[in-house]
Structure formats: C-alpha cells, structure tokens
C-alpha cells in the first residue's frame, strides 16, 4: 500500500520507451525505499540498486558475500514504492542465473545486470579480478531486460572487452555496461564499436573520469548510473553528525543538516494514509 500507480508491466514499457528517446536516462542508486521515493520526486528516470551498496549496508565489503535473498528482498522493497523502473545489480547471478532472473522478474524489477567475473567477485573499480568465460555469460533467459556488464578491460584490455561485449550482443543482450572505462577516448571507442544501448557508470572514487550527463549523452550513451552516491552522501552526514553530538553533547549545532519532520511526512505521503484511515474507520 504505497499509492504507486504503475504496475510492473507499465514500468518496463516506460523503460523501453525512454531508451528509444535518444535522451540519456539518469539513474541514481537507492539504498532504501525512502531514497527511491525521493529519486522519483526529483524527476530522475529510474532507480538503481547496487550490489555493492547492498553489501555495504549489511556491513560487508563488495566481494560476493550477499545472497540472492538479501538482494532480491531489498530490491523488491525499493521497487514497490516507486512508479519508476528499477535496475538491479545481480553480481554474477548468485550461482543460478536462471533462478536469479526468475526471482527478479517475479519481484517486479525492470532490468538486471549480470557480470562476467567469477563467482567470488570484486568491485568493478578494484584490481585483481578474474573473469568467467564468454560462453557462461551469454546463457540467459530472455524474460525482461538483461544488461551485460563486462569487467574485462582491467584484465584483458579494452579491445578484448569489446570482443566480449559483441558476443553478448550476438547472444541477445540489448544493453551493455562496460565497467571502469577511464576517459573520453575509452567511452568514445566503446560507443564506436558497439551497436547497442550503453550504460555509463559514474561512481565516485573509481577509475572513470566523472562526466556531466550531457557529455555522456554526446558520447552516445543511453543510461548513466550513480550507484553509491546516495549512500555516500548519507553516511558522510551521519558520521559527521554523530561525531558532533559525541563531542558537544547535543544536536543544536547540526539541526540545520537534518531532514525536518514536515519534509519526512511529505515524502512518505503521511496525509494520504490519514485520508485512507478516515475512509476505513
């Protein structure tokens, strides 16, 4: 009961139509459902659920310790509160790509992306990654949008990564996520070589130069994600605030950095629930 108007099918249709618009889709990460509501209110095109963020939120590093249940449950809770399409990072498929794809389709997700690393994966902007075979990556169930992510650039180089991506396109992938590209030359080279929709990852503190979304649109990219941005913003402010309270013994210095009760109630649509109570009781 979240006053969401659009069913799953419509969200998927919306996503497809947006991709065809030739305008880049801006997609911030949501680390919880409330953030997803804020993303929609501000006017972004979709919501992203990062596997790394889910791991961090559980107190783990992003090295493949989360389970299908961990990520699918949180993704469902996030997707059900918004009219926007939801894209989810499913790492390397949680041992069974078939079960994983079926689970996320059933949970109302619009698209997922699958990596070509081995099972014990590492963050795409870290070093010392190993890769699964092209043959293993291209086996998929074509139920909804599957984005093929390649981490091969840091291991095999950009040309080999492009070869892998072409194999994924031949296997039916409509969207490619080339991870950890460095600069303008990398982004432009991938665009020139691949005839499909492309996703750009603008994560902070990584290997990629941080471009304005208009620059990425001019490069020919179709989606830009900001996967960890909201979690980083939140955790920095929480840490600063807690340290201030610990040192000073009160919150008075940081009240202006807090979301007000009024603003929170607006975001969770408190008055709509009040109206519903009146109708029921």
Describe this structure in words.
This protein is an alpha/beta fold. 45% of the residues lie in helices and 12% in strands. Strand 3, helix 5 and strand 4 form a beta-alpha-beta unit. Helix 2 crosses helix 4. The protein is globular, with a radius of gyration of 20 Å. The two termini are 17 Å apart. About 9% of the residues have low confidence.
Supply the number of helical segments: 13
Which class of secondary structure composition applies to the elements?
A: alpha/beta
Rg, rounded, reads 20 Å
What is the overall pLDDT average?
Answer: 89
Q: Roughly what fraction of the amino acids lie in strands?
A: 5-15%
Shape: globular
- Taking pLDDT < 50 over at least 5 consecutive residues as the criterion, the unreliable ranges are 119-142
- Helix fraction by DSSP (H/I, runs of at least 4): 40-55%
End-to-end distance: 17 Å
Largest beta-sheet characterization: 8 strands, parallel
Number of strands: 8
Q: Give, in spatial order, the strands making up the sheet with the most strands.
A: 1-8-7-6-5-4-3-2
Order of helices and strands: HEHEHHEHEHEHHEHEHEHHH
Index terms:
8 strands; 281 residues; 8-stranded parallel sheet; globular; 13 helices; 45% helix; alpha/beta
Overview in brief:
The protein is an alpha/beta fold and 281 residues long. It has 13 helices and eight strands.
How are the secondary structure elements laid out?
Blueprint: H1 8-19, E1 25-28, H2 33-42, E2 47-49, H3 51-57, H4 68-79, E3 86-89, H5 97-106, E4 111-115, H6 134-137, E5 145-150, H7 153-156, H8 158-170, E6 175-178, H9 184-193, E7 197-201, H10 213-219, E8 223-226, H11 229-248, H12 261-267, H13 270-280
Parallel strand pairs: 1-8, 2-3, 3-4, 4-5, 5-6, 6-7, 7-8
